[in-house]
Write a structure and sequence with these properties.
Blueprint (H helix, E strand, L loop, with lengths): L1 E5 L9 H6 L4 E4 L12 H12 L4 E6 L5 H4 L5 H17 L4 E4 L11 E5 L5 E5 L1 H12 L10 H11 L4 H13 L16 H10 L6 H22 L2 E4 L18 H10 L5 E6 H5 L6 H8 L3 E6 L2 E3 L5 E3 L9 H11 L4 E4 L20 H22 L4
Parallel strand pairs: 1-2, 1-12, 2-3, 3-4, 4-7, 7-8, 8-9, 9-12
Antiparallel strand pairs: 5-6, 6-11, 10-11
Helix pairs in contact: 4-9, 5-6, 5-7, 12-13, 13-14
Length: 393
Amino acid sequence: MEKTWRWFGKKDKITLSMLRQIGVEGIVTALHDIPNGEIWTVEAINDLKTYIESYGMRWSVVESLPVCEAIKYAGPERDQLIENYTISLANLGKCGIKTICYNFMPVIDWVRTDLQHPWPDGTSSLYYDRVRFAYFDLKILQRKGAEVDYSEEEFNKVAALDKTITETEKDELIDAIIVKTQGFVNGNIREDDKNPVAIFKKLLTLYDGIDRNMLRENMRYFLSAIMPVCEEYGINMCVHPDDPPFQILGLPRIVTNEEDIAWFLQAVDNPHNGLTFCAGSLSAGTHNDTRELARKFAKRTHFVHLRSTDAMPGGNFIESTHLTGRGHILELIRIFEKENPGLPMRVDHARMMLGDEDKGYNAGYSFHGRMLALGQVEGMMAAVEDEIQRGIL
C-alpha cells in the first residue's frame, strides 16, 4: 500500500519536508482556497502538484473535491454545479491526478462531541458521547422533531446534564460539532462565523422533505453525470462512508453499512465508481464488521483510511489506537494487499500527544500522533509483505 498523508496545503504547519522525513510517499490534499462549486483550473492544480513533487512526493489523492449541498438536495443550480464539477475532474485528469475522495453526507461531515478526550497516559483523542450529542440537538439546536430520535432514558440523562453543564461547555460542544470539524472539510461554517448555530439550522432546512430514497437518487444522478469524464481520463471516484455510520439530526445518511455500499456500487455499476474504505467510520457502528466489508468490497475500493474505534455502551465511541479496536487494521491490510494491492492508504484521526494540541492543527490531524500511527501501520504492512513473500498469505 502507498503511504499517504492528509496535508492541508502550503499554510499547513505540518510541512512537506517534515512528511518526507517520516516516510510519506504520497500526499492527500485539495485546493482548499477555492470556494465550493467553483472550477479547479489546470494552472492551480499543476501549481500545487509541482510544489508537492519538488519535495520528492506525489499528489496521490484529492480529498476532497467537495460535492455542493445543492447537488445533494437537488437544488435548481444542481446541473450547473455538476458541470463545474466535471470540468474540475477533467482538469485533474489532464494533470495526472486520478483518485478523488468525496462524501455525500448532508450538511455535516464527521461528528464528535469532544476533540480532546483524555486517556490515562496523557494523550487525548476524538470522542462521541451520545448524551452530549443529544443535548446539543435538543437543548442548543432545538431541532424540530428531535425528540423522536431519543429514548426516555436519554431524555432523562439530557435533563440531568442540563442542570450541571456550563456555558463554556456548551460553547465547546458547538465548537466541536459544527465548527472545528466542519470548516476545513466542507466550508459550510467557518471559525469566524458569529452565530454558527443559526447558520447550521438554516442549512438543515435545505433537506426538509428529503428522505433516504431521494438522497440516493440524487447520488445516482450525480454519479451518472460524471462517469463519462471519469472514463475518459481514468479517474476513480471513491465515496467516504458516513461518520458516524447512522442517522443523525433528522438527515438521511446513505453510506452506513453493507447494504448501502452495495446499493451505490450497483446503482452506477462502473469500475470508476468506488469506495473510500474508512475503517474508523465503519467500525464506529456496531452493525459493521470491517473485515467482512473489506472482503466484499475490496475490488471496488480505491482508497483506504486506516484508523480504528472502540464502541462503548450507550452508543458512545472513541478513536482507539491503530493497534486495537474494531477496525482490525492488520487484517484489513492482509485483505487489501491480497485482493487489490498497491492502494493509497493514510492513517487518520490519531491521538494528540507530545504537545500536538498547542500547534494549531486541524481537529483529528495531529503530527506526532499520526506519525506514531504511521509507524505502527508501516510495521503491520511490512509483516504482511513478509507473509506474501513467504507464501503464507
